[in-house]
Amino acid sequence: RDIGVTGVQTCALPIFTLDAPGCPSGLAPAEARDSTDASPFVRRDREGRDTLELMVHGAKCAGCIKKIETALLALPGVADARLNLSTGRLRVAWAPGALEAHAVTDVLGRLGYGAAAFDPEAALRQVDEEGRKLLRALAVAGFAAMNIMMFSVPVWSGDGEMGEGTRTLLHWISALIAIPASLYAAQPFFRSAWRALSARRANMDVPISLAVILTLGISIAETLQQGAHAYFDGITMLLFFLLVGRYLDHRLRERARNAARDLLAMQAATAARIDANGAVTAIAARDIAPGDRLLLAAGDRAPVDGLVEEGVSELDRAMLTGETLPQAVGKGDAIHAGVVNLSQRLIIRASARVSDSSVAALARLIETSAQGRARFVRLADRAAALYVPLVHTLAALTFVGWFFGPALLRMAGLDIGEVGFRTALLNAVAVLIITCPCALGLAVPAVQVVATGRLFKRGVLVKSGDALERLARIDHVVFDKTGTLTLGKPRLTNVVASEILQKAAALARVSRHPLSRALVEARSEE
Known about the structure:
Blueprint: E1 43-44, E2 50-57, H1 62-73, E3 78-84, E4 89-94, H2 101-111, E5 114-117, H3 120-157, H4 164-185, H5 187-198, H6 205-224, H7 232-264, E6 270-274, E7 280-284, E8 293-296, E9 306-310, E10 313-316, H8 318-321, E11 327-329, E12 334-335, E13 340-341, E14 346-350, H9 358-371, H10 375-385, H11 387-411, H12 420-434, H13 438-457, H14 467-471, H15 498-508, H16 514-525
Antiparallel strand pairs: 1-2, 2-4, 2-5, 3-4, 6-7, 6-8, 8-14, 9-12, 9-14, 10-11, 10-13
Helix pairs in contact: 1-2, 3-4, 3-7, 4-6, 4-7, 5-6, 6-12, 7-9, 7-13, 9-13, 10-13, 11-12, 15-16
Protein backbone atom coordinates (compact mmCIF):
# COMPACT_ATOMS: atom_id res chain seq x y z
CA ARG A 1 0.00 0.00 0.00
CA ASP A 2 1.16 3.56 -0.60
CA ILE A 3 1.34 6.01 2.27
CA GLY A 4 0.37 9.58 1.42
CA VAL A 5 2.83 12.29 2.33
CA THR A 6 1.89 15.90 2.80
CA GLY A 7 4.12 18.89 3.25
CA VAL A 8 4.27 20.41 6.72
CA GLN A 9 6.42 23.23 8.00
CA THR A 10 8.40 22.05 10.99
CA CYS A 11 9.04 24.15 14.08
CA ALA A 12 12.62 25.27 14.24
CA LEU A 13 13.09 25.86 17.97
CA PRO A 14 12.02 23.99 21.12
CA ILE A 15 9.83 26.75 22.54
CA PHE A 16 7.50 24.94 24.89
CA THR A 17 7.55 21.81 27.02
CA LEU A 18 5.27 19.99 29.38
CA ASP A 19 5.32 19.56 33.13
CA ALA A 20 5.11 15.77 33.00
CA PRO A 21 6.57 12.89 35.03
CA GLY A 22 8.16 11.42 31.91
CA CYS A 23 7.77 8.44 29.66
CA PRO A 24 6.20 5.40 31.33
CA SER A 25 8.36 3.07 29.28
CA GLY A 26 11.22 5.14 27.91
CA LEU A 27 14.78 5.90 28.84
CA ALA A 28 14.97 9.58 28.01
CA PRO A 29 14.86 12.01 30.92
CA ALA A 30 11.93 14.38 31.06
CA GLU A 31 12.55 17.20 33.52
CA ALA A 32 9.64 19.20 34.85
CA ARG A 33 9.16 22.37 32.83
CA ASP A 34 6.57 25.10 32.53
CA SER A 35 4.14 24.65 29.67
CA THR A 36 3.16 27.39 27.27
CA ASP A 37 0.81 27.71 24.34
CA ALA A 38 1.55 25.45 21.36
CA SER A 39 -0.84 27.22 18.98
CA PRO A 40 1.91 29.32 17.23
CA PHE A 41 3.31 26.07 15.84
CA VAL A 42 0.11 24.89 14.16
CA ARG A 43 0.45 24.84 10.36
CA ARG A 44 -1.97 24.25 7.49
CA ASP A 45 -0.95 21.35 5.22
CA ARG A 46 -1.72 20.82 1.55
CA GLU A 47 -4.93 18.97 2.36
CA GLY A 48 -6.27 21.94 4.30
CA ARG A 49 -5.86 20.34 7.73
CA ASP A 50 -4.33 21.92 10.81
CA THR A 51 -1.13 20.10 11.77
CA LEU A 52 1.21 20.19 14.75
CA GLU A 53 4.64 18.60 14.95
CA LEU A 54 6.16 17.87 18.35
CA MET A 55 9.22 16.10 19.69
CA VAL A 56 8.09 13.57 22.30
CA HIS A 57 10.55 12.89 25.10
CA GLY A 58 11.10 9.32 26.22
CA ALA A 59 8.85 7.24 23.93
CA LYS A 60 10.91 4.11 23.34
CA CYS A 61 8.68 1.11 22.73
CA ALA A 62 5.77 -0.07 20.63
CA GLY A 63 3.50 0.36 23.63
CA CYS A 64 4.33 4.07 23.66
CA ILE A 65 3.28 4.41 20.03
CA LYS A 66 -0.01 2.65 20.57
CA LYS A 67 -0.78 4.56 23.75
CA ILE A 68 -0.08 8.01 22.29
CA GLU A 69 -1.66 7.51 18.90
CA THR A 70 -4.80 5.89 20.33
CA ALA A 71 -5.32 8.69 22.82
CA LEU A 72 -4.82 11.41 20.21
CA LEU A 73 -7.05 9.76 17.61
CA ALA A 74 -9.80 9.71 20.23
CA LEU A 75 -9.81 13.53 20.28
CA PRO A 76 -12.64 15.13 18.28
CA GLY A 77 -11.66 16.05 14.73
CA VAL A 78 -8.25 14.35 14.74
CA ALA A 79 -7.71 12.62 11.39
CA ASP A 80 -4.13 11.44 11.79
CA ALA A 81 -1.68 10.94 14.63
CA ARG A 82 1.66 9.33 13.95
CA LEU A 83 4.68 9.00 16.22
CA ASN A 84 8.10 8.12 14.85
CA LEU A 85 10.28 6.41 17.44
CA SER A 86 13.42 6.88 15.36
CA THR A 87 13.27 10.68 15.51
CA GLY A 88 10.83 11.26 18.37
CA ARG A 89 8.63 13.26 15.98
CA LEU A 90 4.88 13.30 16.57
CA ARG A 91 2.63 14.66 13.82
CA VAL A 92 -1.03 15.33 14.55
CA ALA A 93 -3.53 16.52 11.91
CA TRP A 94 -7.12 17.58 12.50
CA ALA A 95 -9.97 19.38 10.76
CA PRO A 96 -9.55 23.18 10.77
CA GLY A 97 -10.92 24.70 13.96
CA ALA A 98 -11.98 21.34 15.41
CA LEU A 99 -9.25 21.27 18.07
CA GLU A 100 -7.01 23.57 20.09
CA ALA A 101 -3.28 22.85 20.14
CA HIS A 102 -3.19 22.64 23.93
CA ALA A 103 -5.51 19.61 23.77
CA VAL A 104 -2.67 17.60 22.18
CA THR A 105 -0.13 18.64 24.80
CA ASP A 106 -2.63 18.00 27.58
CA VAL A 107 -3.10 14.42 26.40
CA LEU A 108 0.65 13.85 26.32
CA GLY A 109 0.97 15.27 29.82
CA ARG A 110 -1.74 12.98 31.19
CA LEU A 111 -0.01 9.99 29.62
CA GLY A 112 3.25 10.94 31.31
CA TYR A 113 5.28 12.13 28.31
CA GLY A 114 7.23 15.34 27.85
CA ALA A 115 7.08 17.25 24.58
CA ALA A 116 8.67 20.20 22.81
CA ALA A 117 8.42 21.88 19.45
CA PHE A 118 10.21 19.59 17.03
CA ASP A 119 13.85 20.51 16.59
CA PRO A 120 16.01 17.95 14.72
CA GLU A 121 19.23 19.20 16.29
CA ALA A 122 17.80 18.99 19.81
CA ALA A 123 16.49 15.50 19.07
CA LEU A 124 19.93 14.46 17.88
CA ARG A 125 21.58 15.83 21.03
CA GLN A 126 19.06 13.99 23.19
CA VAL A 127 19.69 10.73 21.35
CA ASP A 128 23.45 11.10 21.71
CA GLU A 129 23.12 11.76 25.44
CA GLU A 130 20.90 8.71 25.89
CA GLY A 131 23.45 6.58 24.07
CA ARG A 132 26.28 7.80 26.30
CA LYS A 133 24.27 7.07 29.45
CA LEU A 134 23.42 3.57 28.28
CA LEU A 135 27.04 2.90 27.36
CA ARG A 136 28.28 4.07 30.76
CA ALA A 137 25.72 1.91 32.56
CA LEU A 138 26.68 -1.04 30.35
CA ALA A 139 30.38 -0.57 31.12
CA VAL A 140 29.75 -0.39 34.88
CA ALA A 141 27.60 -3.53 34.85
CA GLY A 142 30.17 -5.45 32.77
CA PHE A 143 33.07 -4.34 34.98
CA ALA A 144 31.19 -5.34 38.14
CA ALA A 145 30.11 -8.72 36.73
CA MET A 146 33.67 -9.67 35.73
CA ASN A 147 35.15 -8.71 39.09
CA ILE A 148 32.41 -10.35 41.16
CA MET A 149 32.94 -13.58 39.23
CA MET A 150 36.47 -13.75 40.65
CA PHE A 151 35.00 -14.04 44.13
CA SER A 152 31.95 -16.13 43.21
CA VAL A 153 33.80 -18.94 41.44
CA PRO A 154 35.79 -19.89 44.59
CA VAL A 155 32.52 -19.98 46.56
CA TRP A 156 30.94 -22.33 43.99
CA SER A 157 33.96 -24.60 43.61
CA GLY A 158 34.66 -24.68 47.34
CA ASP A 159 31.14 -25.66 48.41
CA GLY A 160 31.43 -27.96 51.42
CA GLU A 161 35.13 -27.32 51.85
CA MET A 162 35.37 -23.54 52.28
CA GLY A 163 35.02 -22.21 55.79
CA GLU A 164 32.03 -20.09 56.76
CA GLY A 165 34.19 -17.06 57.56
CA THR A 166 36.00 -17.14 54.21
CA ARG A 167 32.75 -17.56 52.30
CA THR A 168 31.14 -14.64 54.14
CA LEU A 169 34.21 -12.46 53.47
CA LEU A 170 33.97 -13.20 49.73
CA HIS A 171 30.25 -12.39 49.81
CA TRP A 172 30.95 -9.04 51.47
CA ILE A 173 33.61 -8.17 48.90
CA SER A 174 31.11 -9.02 46.15
CA ALA A 175 28.49 -6.88 47.89
CA LEU A 176 30.84 -3.88 48.04
CA ILE A 177 31.20 -4.10 44.26
CA ALA A 178 27.65 -5.14 43.33
CA ILE A 179 25.57 -2.72 45.40
CA PRO A 180 26.87 0.61 43.99
CA ALA A 181 27.39 -0.86 40.51
CA SER A 182 23.89 -2.33 40.33
CA LEU A 183 22.22 0.81 41.64
CA TYR A 184 24.05 2.85 38.98
CA ALA A 185 23.62 0.44 36.06
CA ALA A 186 19.92 -0.07 36.81
CA GLN A 187 19.13 3.65 36.65
CA PRO A 188 17.54 3.43 33.16
CA PHE A 189 15.12 0.81 34.49
CA PHE A 190 14.54 2.57 37.82
CA ARG A 191 13.78 5.91 36.17
CA SER A 192 11.42 4.34 33.68
CA ALA A 193 9.61 2.33 36.37
CA TRP A 194 9.27 5.36 38.65
CA ARG A 195 7.79 7.48 35.90
CA ALA A 196 5.37 4.73 35.02
CA LEU A 197 4.22 4.38 38.60
CA SER A 198 4.02 8.16 38.99
CA ALA A 199 1.65 8.21 36.02
CA ARG A 200 -0.30 5.32 37.59
CA ARG A 201 0.79 2.94 34.89
CA ALA A 202 3.05 -0.07 34.58
CA ASN A 203 5.58 -1.14 31.98
CA MET A 204 8.23 -3.75 31.34
CA ASP A 205 10.75 -1.99 33.57
CA VAL A 206 8.60 -2.26 36.70
CA PRO A 207 9.12 -6.03 37.19
CA ILE A 208 12.77 -5.70 36.17
CA SER A 209 13.29 -3.03 38.84
CA LEU A 210 11.47 -5.13 41.42
CA ALA A 211 13.64 -8.12 40.56
CA VAL A 212 16.83 -6.08 40.91
CA ILE A 213 15.83 -4.58 44.27
CA LEU A 214 14.53 -7.86 45.71
CA THR A 215 17.57 -9.85 44.58
CA LEU A 216 19.94 -7.29 46.09
CA GLY A 217 17.91 -7.33 49.31
CA ILE A 218 17.91 -11.13 49.52
CA SER A 219 21.65 -11.28 48.84
CA ILE A 220 22.42 -8.68 51.52
CA ALA A 221 20.21 -10.52 54.02
CA GLU A 222 21.96 -13.82 53.22
CA THR A 223 25.36 -12.20 53.69
CA LEU A 224 24.35 -10.67 57.04
CA GLN A 225 23.14 -14.08 58.23
CA GLN A 226 26.32 -15.76 56.88
CA GLY A 227 24.20 -17.81 54.50
CA ALA A 228 25.60 -20.11 51.86
CA HIS A 229 24.09 -18.37 48.84
CA ALA A 230 24.22 -14.80 47.54
CA TYR A 231 23.26 -13.57 44.09
CA PHE A 232 25.41 -10.53 43.50
CA ASP A 233 26.99 -12.15 40.44
CA GLY A 234 23.61 -13.00 38.93
CA ILE A 235 22.12 -9.53 39.31
CA THR A 236 25.10 -7.74 37.73
CA MET A 237 25.18 -10.21 34.86
CA LEU A 238 21.43 -9.78 34.33
CA LEU A 239 21.80 -6.00 34.17
CA PHE A 240 24.70 -6.37 31.75
CA PHE A 241 22.68 -8.44 29.27
CA LEU A 242 19.58 -6.25 29.59
CA LEU A 243 21.67 -3.15 28.91
CA VAL A 244 23.30 -4.83 25.92
CA GLY A 245 19.81 -5.22 24.45
CA ARG A 246 18.89 -1.61 25.21
CA TYR A 247 22.09 -0.25 23.72
CA LEU A 248 21.81 -2.37 20.57
CA ASP A 249 18.24 -1.15 20.10
CA HIS A 250 19.48 2.41 20.51
CA ARG A 251 22.16 1.89 17.85
CA LEU A 252 19.71 0.26 15.43
CA ARG A 253 17.30 3.18 15.66
CA GLU A 254 20.16 5.62 15.23
CA ARG A 255 21.05 3.90 11.96
CA ALA A 256 17.45 4.23 10.82
CA ARG A 257 17.54 7.94 11.58
CA ASN A 258 20.68 8.25 9.47
CA ALA A 259 18.81 7.08 6.36
CA ALA A 260 16.38 10.00 6.45
CA ARG A 261 19.18 12.33 7.52
CA ASP A 262 21.37 11.27 4.59
CA LEU A 263 18.50 11.91 2.20
CA LEU A 264 17.93 15.39 3.60
CA ALA A 265 21.65 16.03 3.24
CA MET A 266 21.15 15.78 -0.52
CA GLN A 267 19.32 19.07 -0.40
CA ALA A 268 21.37 22.17 -1.09
CA ALA A 269 22.16 24.11 2.08
CA THR A 270 22.41 27.46 0.29
CA ALA A 271 20.83 29.10 -2.75
CA ALA A 272 21.47 32.09 -5.02
CA ARG A 273 18.42 34.38 -4.91
CA ILE A 274 17.81 37.07 -7.53
CA ASP A 275 16.23 40.19 -6.05
CA ALA A 276 14.00 42.74 -7.79
CA ASN A 277 17.05 44.67 -9.00
CA GLY A 278 18.64 41.59 -10.56
CA ALA A 279 21.35 41.28 -7.91
CA VAL A 280 22.28 37.77 -6.82
CA THR A 281 22.70 37.11 -3.10
CA ALA A 282 23.50 33.88 -1.26
CA ILE A 283 20.91 32.82 1.29
CA ALA A 284 20.23 29.75 3.40
CA ALA A 285 17.93 27.28 1.66
CA ARG A 286 15.53 27.33 4.62
CA ASP A 287 14.91 31.05 3.94
CA ILE A 288 13.55 30.45 0.44
CA ALA A 289 9.90 31.45 0.09
CA PRO A 290 7.48 30.50 -2.69
CA GLY A 291 7.82 33.01 -5.54
CA ASP A 292 11.56 33.68 -5.08
CA ARG A 293 13.68 33.70 -8.26
CA LEU A 294 16.77 31.50 -7.92
CA LEU A 295 19.89 31.07 -10.02
CA LEU A 296 20.86 27.44 -10.57
CA ALA A 297 24.33 27.16 -12.07
CA ALA A 298 25.66 24.11 -13.90
CA GLY A 299 26.54 21.45 -11.35
CA ASP A 300 24.25 22.87 -8.65
CA ARG A 301 21.58 20.86 -6.90
CA ALA A 302 18.09 22.37 -6.81
CA PRO A 303 17.28 23.45 -3.22
CA VAL A 304 13.48 23.53 -3.62
CA ASP A 305 10.73 22.65 -6.07
CA GLY A 306 10.00 25.22 -8.75
CA LEU A 307 9.48 26.11 -12.42
CA VAL A 308 12.11 27.03 -15.00
CA GLU A 309 11.76 30.68 -16.09
CA GLU A 310 14.89 31.09 -18.19
CA GLY A 311 17.45 28.79 -19.76
CA VAL A 312 17.75 25.35 -21.29
CA SER A 313 19.69 22.55 -19.67
CA GLU A 314 19.74 18.86 -18.71
CA LEU A 315 18.90 17.48 -15.28
CA ASP A 316 20.03 14.41 -13.42
CA ARG A 317 16.82 13.10 -11.80
CA ALA A 318 18.18 9.71 -10.76
CA MET A 319 17.71 10.40 -7.06
CA LEU A 320 13.96 10.94 -7.49
CA THR A 321 12.99 8.76 -10.45
CA GLY A 322 15.77 6.19 -10.76
CA GLU A 323 16.24 7.20 -14.41
CA THR A 324 19.94 7.69 -15.12
CA LEU A 325 19.53 9.28 -18.56
CA PRO A 326 19.72 13.10 -18.29
CA GLN A 327 16.45 14.83 -19.08
CA ALA A 328 16.22 18.12 -21.02
CA VAL A 329 14.31 21.01 -19.46
CA GLY A 330 13.35 24.44 -20.68
CA LYS A 331 11.11 27.37 -19.85
CA GLY A 332 7.95 26.30 -18.01
CA ASP A 333 9.20 22.84 -17.05
CA ALA A 334 8.96 21.69 -13.44
CA ILE A 335 12.10 21.12 -11.41
CA HIS A 336 12.23 19.27 -8.10
CA ALA A 337 14.49 19.61 -5.09
CA GLY A 338 17.48 17.29 -5.16
CA VAL A 339 17.95 17.12 -8.95
CA VAL A 340 21.30 18.22 -10.36
CA ASN A 341 21.63 20.79 -13.14
CA LEU A 342 24.18 19.30 -15.52
CA SER A 343 24.99 21.65 -18.41
CA GLN A 344 23.67 25.25 -18.57
CA ARG A 345 22.59 27.74 -15.95
CA LEU A 346 18.88 28.05 -15.17
CA ILE A 347 16.69 30.65 -13.50
CA ILE A 348 13.84 29.06 -11.59
CA ARG A 349 10.96 30.38 -9.52
CA ALA A 350 10.44 28.55 -6.23
CA SER A 351 7.02 26.98 -5.74
CA ALA A 352 7.53 25.53 -2.24
CA ARG A 353 9.66 25.84 0.84
CA VAL A 354 12.44 23.43 1.77
CA SER A 355 10.16 21.67 4.27
CA ASP A 356 7.60 21.05 1.49
CA SER A 357 10.08 19.89 -1.14
CA SER A 358 10.17 16.49 -2.84
CA VAL A 359 13.27 15.47 -0.87
CA ALA A 360 11.61 16.36 2.43
CA ALA A 361 8.56 14.34 1.35
CA LEU A 362 10.81 11.33 0.64
CA ALA A 363 12.48 11.71 4.04
CA ARG A 364 9.08 11.71 5.74
CA LEU A 365 8.14 8.67 3.68
CA ILE A 366 11.21 6.83 4.97
CA GLU A 367 10.31 7.76 8.53
CA THR A 368 6.75 6.56 7.95
CA SER A 369 7.90 3.23 6.55
CA ALA A 370 10.30 2.73 9.48
CA GLN A 371 7.50 3.20 11.99
CA GLY A 372 4.81 1.38 9.99
CA ARG A 373 3.69 -1.72 11.83
CA ALA A 374 3.72 -4.93 9.88
CA ARG A 375 1.82 -8.07 10.87
CA PHE A 376 4.58 -9.57 13.00
CA VAL A 377 5.25 -6.19 14.62
CA ARG A 378 1.57 -5.91 15.55
CA LEU A 379 1.70 -9.42 17.06
CA ALA A 380 4.75 -8.43 19.10
CA ASP A 381 2.97 -5.26 20.24
CA ARG A 382 -0.02 -7.22 21.49
CA ALA A 383 2.19 -9.75 23.27
CA ALA A 384 4.20 -6.98 24.93
CA ALA A 385 1.00 -5.21 26.02
CA LEU A 386 -0.07 -8.34 27.93
CA TYR A 387 3.30 -8.71 29.59
CA VAL A 388 2.99 -6.48 32.65
CA PRO A 389 -0.33 -7.73 34.08
CA LEU A 390 0.46 -11.32 33.16
CA VAL A 391 3.94 -11.47 34.66
CA HIS A 392 2.92 -9.76 37.89
CA THR A 393 0.05 -12.19 38.25
CA LEU A 394 2.33 -15.17 37.61
CA ALA A 395 4.91 -13.91 40.11
CA ALA A 396 2.25 -13.38 42.77
CA LEU A 397 0.76 -16.83 42.17
CA THR A 398 4.25 -18.35 42.33
CA PHE A 399 4.90 -16.76 45.70
CA VAL A 400 1.51 -17.80 47.09
CA GLY A 401 1.88 -21.32 45.73
CA TRP A 402 5.33 -21.92 47.21
CA PHE A 403 4.51 -20.22 50.51
CA PHE A 404 1.13 -21.83 51.23
CA GLY A 405 1.36 -24.87 48.97
CA PRO A 406 3.28 -27.19 51.32
CA ALA A 407 0.71 -26.67 54.10
CA LEU A 408 -2.15 -27.44 51.73
CA LEU A 409 -0.36 -30.55 50.48
CA ARG A 410 0.19 -31.76 54.05
CA MET A 411 -3.53 -31.40 54.67
CA ALA A 412 -4.05 -33.60 51.62
CA GLY A 413 -1.65 -36.20 53.01
CA LEU A 414 1.43 -35.28 50.93
CA ASP A 415 4.41 -33.90 52.84
CA ILE A 416 7.10 -32.15 50.78
CA GLY A 417 8.74 -30.45 53.73
CA GLU A 418 8.96 -26.81 54.72
CA VAL A 419 9.65 -24.26 52.00
CA GLY A 420 9.46 -20.93 53.79
CA PHE A 421 9.35 -17.27 52.86
CA ARG A 422 12.86 -17.16 51.36
CA THR A 423 12.31 -19.91 48.80
CA ALA A 424 8.90 -18.58 47.82
CA LEU A 425 10.32 -15.08 47.29
CA LEU A 426 13.27 -16.39 45.26
CA ASN A 427 10.96 -18.30 42.94
CA ALA A 428 8.73 -15.25 42.47
CA VAL A 429 11.75 -13.09 41.65
CA ALA A 430 12.91 -15.74 39.15
CA VAL A 431 9.57 -15.43 37.35
CA LEU A 432 9.99 -11.66 37.14
CA ILE A 433 13.45 -12.06 35.60
CA ILE A 434 13.08 -14.95 33.17
CA THR A 435 9.83 -13.68 31.64
CA CYS A 436 11.35 -10.38 30.46
CA PRO A 437 10.18 -10.04 26.80
CA CYS A 438 12.93 -7.67 25.72
CA ALA A 439 13.84 -9.86 22.76
CA LEU A 440 10.23 -10.01 21.61
CA GLY A 441 9.65 -6.30 22.02
CA LEU A 442 12.89 -5.25 20.31
CA ALA A 443 13.86 -7.89 17.76
CA VAL A 444 10.86 -7.68 15.43
CA PRO A 445 10.81 -3.87 15.03
CA ALA A 446 14.63 -3.81 14.85
CA VAL A 447 14.63 -6.12 11.83
CA GLN A 448 12.22 -3.84 9.99
CA VAL A 449 14.14 -0.67 10.91
CA VAL A 450 17.54 -2.02 9.86
CA ALA A 451 16.22 -3.60 6.65
CA THR A 452 14.52 -0.42 5.44
CA GLY A 453 17.65 1.61 6.25
CA ARG A 454 19.96 -0.72 4.33
CA LEU A 455 17.62 -0.91 1.37
CA PHE A 456 17.55 2.89 1.18
CA LYS A 457 21.34 3.00 1.00
CA ARG A 458 21.09 0.67 -2.01
CA GLY A 459 18.52 2.85 -3.73
CA VAL A 460 15.36 0.98 -2.73
CA LEU A 461 12.66 2.97 -0.92
CA VAL A 462 10.28 0.94 1.27
CA LYS A 463 6.93 2.73 1.46
CA SER A 464 4.93 0.42 3.77
CA GLY A 465 5.60 -1.47 6.97
CA ASP A 466 4.46 -4.86 5.66
CA ALA A 467 6.33 -4.66 2.33
CA LEU A 468 9.16 -6.89 3.57
CA GLU A 469 6.70 -9.55 4.74
CA ARG A 470 4.82 -9.48 1.45
CA LEU A 471 8.12 -9.72 -0.41
CA ALA A 472 8.66 -13.20 1.07
CA ARG A 473 5.54 -14.46 -0.71
CA ILE A 474 6.55 -13.19 -4.15
CA ASP A 475 7.13 -15.76 -6.89
CA HIS A 476 7.76 -13.50 -9.89
CA VAL A 477 9.13 -9.99 -10.32
CA VAL A 478 8.16 -7.77 -13.27
CA PHE A 479 10.21 -4.61 -13.88
CA ASP A 480 8.36 -1.81 -15.63
CA LYS A 481 11.26 0.05 -17.17
CA THR A 482 12.10 1.18 -20.68
CA GLY A 483 15.12 -0.61 -22.07
CA THR A 484 17.24 -2.74 -19.78
CA LEU A 485 17.99 -2.71 -16.07
CA THR A 486 21.30 -0.97 -15.48
CA LEU A 487 23.58 0.01 -12.64
CA GLY A 488 22.61 3.62 -13.21
CA LYS A 489 26.11 4.59 -14.23
CA PRO A 490 27.27 4.94 -17.89
CA ARG A 491 30.50 3.17 -18.79
CA LEU A 492 32.67 3.50 -21.89
CA THR A 493 32.64 0.16 -23.73
CA ASN A 494 34.12 0.81 -27.18
CA VAL A 495 37.90 0.80 -27.46
CA VAL A 496 39.52 4.04 -28.62
CA ALA A 497 43.09 5.15 -29.02
CA SER A 498 44.74 6.22 -25.77
CA GLU A 499 45.67 9.68 -27.01
CA ILE A 500 42.12 10.35 -28.21
CA LEU A 501 40.68 9.22 -24.87
CA GLN A 502 43.18 11.42 -23.06
CA LYS A 503 42.10 14.51 -24.99
CA ALA A 504 38.40 13.69 -24.58
CA ALA A 505 38.81 13.13 -20.83
CA ALA A 506 40.64 16.45 -20.47
CA LEU A 507 37.71 18.26 -22.08
CA ALA A 508 35.13 16.30 -20.08
CA ARG A 509 36.82 16.80 -16.73
CA VAL A 510 35.09 20.14 -16.09
CA SER A 511 31.62 18.75 -16.83
CA ARG A 512 29.28 16.91 -14.46
CA HIS A 513 27.34 15.24 -17.26
CA PRO A 514 27.16 11.44 -16.67
CA LEU A 515 28.69 10.71 -20.08
CA SER A 516 31.55 13.12 -19.36
CA ARG A 517 32.17 11.43 -16.04
CA ALA A 518 32.27 8.08 -17.82
CA LEU A 519 35.04 9.35 -20.11
CA VAL A 520 37.05 10.62 -17.13
CA GLU A 521 36.71 7.32 -15.27
CA ALA A 522 37.67 5.33 -18.37
CA ARG A 523 40.85 7.41 -18.65
CA SER A 524 41.71 6.87 -14.96
CA GLU A 525 41.29 3.10 -15.32
CA GLU A 526 43.84 2.84 -18.12
